[in-house]
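Team,

Forwarding the record for the chain on the shared tracking sheet. I've put the sequence and predicted structure together so nobody has to dig through attachments.
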Amino acid sequence: MDFMKLLKSIEELLYELITWFVFYALTFWRIVTRPITMLAYAQKELTEKDEQQFDDAVSPPILLLLTLVLLHVLEGALASGTASVLPRLLQDDRNLLVFRALAFSLFPLLYATIRLRSSGARVTRTTLRPAFYSQSYATVPFVMSISLGMQLASHHQALPGGNVWGVGLMLIGTVWYIAVETVWLSRDGQSSRLRAFIVTLGIFLIAVVALVIIAVLVALVGHQMDQQVLPAA
């Protein structure tokens, strides 16, 4: 009986993994073309029963994680040589992937928290979850554009105009992200577009600064680890 339950679990897991190939592309396309609709969809789906949630899409946190994994694999396949400049702590693929997941999760976390506070709602695990899920959807195209843009720029010697294309892609992704967040913040009618834009830009800059600080701290920790390893070697 237990063996049959195990087989059933493996069957369900395999089916879930395979369907990601279809629903990842569909979900990403819907986010890019109908971002506001998808942000509202993410919040609505959490009101459904667990087995019915995100039945026609990939859930936001999983979509964000899958995007980071795909980008990480692409970076490794291109072998840009950036791993050598990373601190020892981040030269391990698992550590690097976890760091990127936590770092880019700062953006949806900050936007979700500020939106809750601006609406007067109490910030709890229950109230934060729908806001975080919707913001995770908006973050995915932004993360994709930043990562691909950096990859293009890093291969400018092999790809003519790589710097221009890379910077352009990152700029487009950033403008799209800020525009979506501005519209989303102002859709309740309590904030004007101008005020929503200022708040959105402020949150974005805070997230960038926080990301830089975390990266510096991780680099310092990695440097300390490197210094401890060198004498022993």
